[in-house]
Specification:
The protein has 69 residues and is mostly beta strands. It contains no helices and five strands. The protein has one domain: SH3 type barrels (Roll), CATH 2.30.30. A five-stranded antiparallel beta sheet has the order 4-3-2-1-5, with no helix packed on it. β2 and β3 form a beta hairpin.
């Protein structure tokens, strides 16, 4: 199932509430996922992952302040 995400930029959320993002999913098997960022390669145990998300569209940031359009 994760093979369709190879080479895509994903965010990985862990069971303990932390996350990593801005990297690409390189490889995955039954025990580990290889995740590459600009600075490091992470080998993450599958048992510690809660979810993996893929950004499919750039979000519009909300406008702050008052202005005349």
């Amino acid at each position: 199932m994760l093979t369709s995400l190879y080479g895509k930029e994903v965010a990985i959320y862990f069971i303990d509430g932390t996350s990593v993002n801005g990297g690409t999913l390189e490889q995955a098997d039954d025990t580990f996922v290889k995740y590459r960022t600009e600075y490091e390669d992470l080998y993450i145990p599958v048992t510690s992952i809660r979810s993996i998300t893929v950004n499919t569209k750039e979000r519009q940031r909300p406008r702050i302040g008052f202005g005349i359009e």
